[in-house]
Amino acid sequence: MTRAGCSAGRHRAISSVEVIEVGPRDGLQNEKVSVPTDVKVALCRSLVDAGVRRIETTSYVSPKWVPQMSDNVNVMEALKDIPSGVEVSVLTPNLKGLENAKLSGRVDAVSVFGAASESFSQKNINCSIEESISRFSAVAETALGDGLKVRGYVSCIAACPYEGPIDPKNVVKVWKLLKDLGCYEVSLGDTIGVATPNQISKVIEALVAEGADVNELAGHYHDTCGTALTNVLRSLDLGLSKFDSSAAGLGGCPYAAGASGNLATEDLVYLCDGLGIDTGIDFGKVVCASEATLDVIGIGNRSKSAQAWQAKKQT
Ligand code: HMG
Ligand code: MG
């Protein structure tokens, strides 16, 4: 069977996709304009109103490294009453981050974020991959003991901004370590948004060959080269049904120069709606959810499908 024939059959079998909205964290961490706390909070609330059931609201990282997330405590204080059916997650690179996150009282999952590239690990979290796993191990043990879920990220699954192409074997190595720590799900980050579908296949196939369950993997594709949506389609073909996305295509990564935002949530929802795959998210509401944030930043919505919808609404 050709790949095309194989692919066409598989994504139809997936009837629902879990969208993990990462715009308030991954999106806003890299916008040059600092977004006021109340606007961030309103963004999170509007996204939940639009049907988002998993949301990454902020990160507990050093304010010197990522000043845009320095209001994490206030954001979480204001989001205490987010309905219990919504999974709220935050980034915690170390025990200090975890202890601060726990004070909020409304975190369901904490995310540790590793990389398949040594150089990226150093630039992003100031330590080697080995040292990062040792820090994450302490975070995971404490978090799991406290009844929190632990999510893992592997950055640079296809390429690193400092080292170039990354061998899928390195992704498998870090995925295994994160899995052994007790991560319930590992998100696969095309951090600089350069991967094309065949590279995504190689990574997913390498993971599955080593025993990964596709239901415990998520796709986290930045859209620098405009390939994020095709990478989602390929991932659906291979059985993945969880994807990280960012409202309005906000953001990037502060330690990956030139990387643009994640796949826009609007484009993910538009694709899924068209394929008859349920996301539980209302397309029009998610477009409107980011309007106030975009006004503050002074940019338009970066999602093509959102732009088309807005243009149609104005006529
Ligand atoms: P470090 O400087 O090596 O840490 O940074 P340290 O332990 O030596 O501490 C230095 C200072 O930071 C101390 O303060 C600590 O208290 C403080 P000082 O005594 O100088 O005043 N500190 C903290 N403060 C608040 N919260 C904390 C914390 N830890 C230490 N948790 C560290 C190590 C990891 C903290 C730093 O490198 C850092 O914060 N990095 C953040 C990197 C980041 O947020 N990157 C973006 C997110 S990752 C991403 O976007 C990729 C992803 O989307 C997936 C993908 O796209 O591939 C997830
Ligand atoms: Mg990212």
UniProtKB/TrEMBL annotation:
One GO BP on record is: L-leucine catabolic process
> What keywords were assigned to this record?
Lyase, Metal-binding
Q: Which InterPro entries match?
A: Aldolase_TIM (IPR013785), HMGL (IPR043594), PYR_CT (IPR000891)
UniProt GO MF annotations:
hydroxymethylglutaryl-CoA lyase activity; metal ion binding
| Reactions accelerated catalytically | (3S)-3-hydroxy-3-methylglutaryl-CoA = acetoacetate + acetyl-CoA
Q: In which pathway does it act?
A: Metabolic intermediate metabolism; (S)-3-hydroxy-3-methylglutaryl-CoA degradation; acetoacetate from (S)-3-hydroxy-3-methylglutaryl-CoA: step 1/1
* E.C. code: 4.1.3.4
Q: Which family does it belong to?
A: Belongs to the HMG-CoA lyase family.
The name of this protein is hydroxymethylglutaryl-CoA lyase
Source organism per entry reads Triparma strigata
